[in-house]
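Listing S7. Sequence submitted for prediction.
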Amino acid sequence: MAASAALVPDTPAHTVDAFHRGRFWLVQPRQGHRAGMDAMMLAAAVPSGFSGRLADFGAGAGAATLAVLSRCPLAHAVLVERSAEMAAFAAATLAHPGNAHLGDRASVLKADVTLAGRARHGAGLADNSFDFVVMNPPFNAAQDRATPDTLRREAHVTEDGLFERWIRSAAAVVKPRGGLAAIARPEQLVAILDAMEGRFGDAEMLCVHPRPDAAAIRIVVRAVLGARGKLSIRPPLTLHGASGNEPTERTEMINNGLASLFGD
């Protein structure tokens, strides 16, 4: 569902799309990096009763953040985005009239989440200042997603050591016993767990399968800062049935902000 782009005339070529059955709207590029199911699954990793301060690393146009705010009425959030153009889309999203009921609980911070120490603090990411961090890092290998589109490339193509840098920053800015959730490809689980080592524990992993008989295409990992529990593997999410393209009931609930991914 789309609304008139005239609502945000200063924003580059874009669409205005409804999510959560019209409970919030996203102003996003017409071409290039566009939000979809990944953002909804990441947002659904946050417990439904969450009422703290959330940091959305690599927020893009703001889909994951607004999905959390839509489901968690007492939560507040900071959308952290390195790209000036995507940060502008995020600001346009928050300013959209259809998001007036959510906009006062969120702000945009243009910052590079890979900064460390004083540089990170100076960019606006203070230590121990958030209760939960969600992240959707660029997780495609360069050879998998070659593209001349700069926004698409920055949003999708990973760099060596990326998970270490992003998770290091998450461990710095989140409060003790605060949460972390990340979405990635299955082959990146080792890199994520290595980066969490000594920082986050009580990790839970959930695999996302397109169909019951198909291999997983995404993993969602959630963990707690300073916890020491071992990794647990939760029941998977299957997006579609054995035949056809209709989403499963659980997928539909998650995609529309009516259920959490981990059942809490």
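Caption to Listing S7: primary sequence and predicted structure tokens for the chain studied. The chain has one domain: 2-195. Residues 1-8, 143-147, 153-157 have pLDDT under 50 and may be disordered.
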